Structure formats: C-alpha cells, structure tokens
Request: fold
Amino acid sequence: MENASKALIIAGAILISILIVGLGVIIYNNVSGIASDTSGIDQQAVSSHNSPIESYFSDHTTGSNVRALINYVNGINRTAQANDDTVGNYIYLTTTDTNIASSGSQVTSSNIRTGRSYSVHLGGSEDFSDEEKAGTSYWSNGYIKTIVIEFADDSTT
Reply:
C-alpha cells in the first residue's frame, strides 16, 4: 500500500510539473506574439500610402484621372525630396506617351487629353524586394515605387 501511495504522489507531481511547463509555454507564446506584432502597424501605413494610388490603376483610366494621379504623385515626390527621403518614398512615373512630358525630376501633365483613355499599372516586377533597384514595383518598405502610364486608345472628345 505504501508503494501505491508513493507512486500516486510521484504521478501527481509529474502531472503538476507538466501543467506548469505547458502554462509557461502558453504565456511565453502570447507575450512574444504581442511584442513582435508590429507588422500590423506597418501594413496599415503601407496600405494607407498605396491605396489612393492603386485606385487609379486601370486599363481605361481617363485623362483627367491621369492628371490627378500625376499631381498626387508629384506631391508625394516633392515631400520625399524635401525630407531627403527619396529611397523608399519616391515614386517613379514612366510612360510610353509623348504627351506626358518630364520637367526635371517632376512629370507634368499639361498635355494629357481628358478625352483619351490611358492604361495605368505597376511597372517592373510586382514582388517586394530588399534591394532598391530600378524596375521593381515596390520599395523594400512596401511602398509603390514605379507606375507606368500608357496610351490605351485613340478616342478624342
């Protein structure tokens, strides 16, 4: 009888120690998950930066929307240049349309015709890249890097 009671005491002690270790692991996972969960905040910043620009992406964007996009991007670029923060925040606009002229580091839209249709999309690879190379669509921080504006049709008003 003494051996049976000692075996029950040892089994109970082992069970309690397993429960304590399991509880410790659960607490550690919860605490480390909270401490390292800053990606949600970064993802919100990326989304709020990219969403207004992505709303212009289409195969048939009107000339007035292209003008608005160019003005919006130029504003972002002026801010990035003023803050000396062109890597990671600057947006490159490229085009195949000769009506979109470049004036120094700013793209101008004075010759964009409102009656024409344009294709606006990301340029280069759409993968996120840790290397800040030209031709990729995104900076390593997730912000849009390259936008391509192309003439879509020949209709005029």
About this structure: The beta strands are 58-62, 92-95, 102-103, 106-107, 117-122, 146-151.
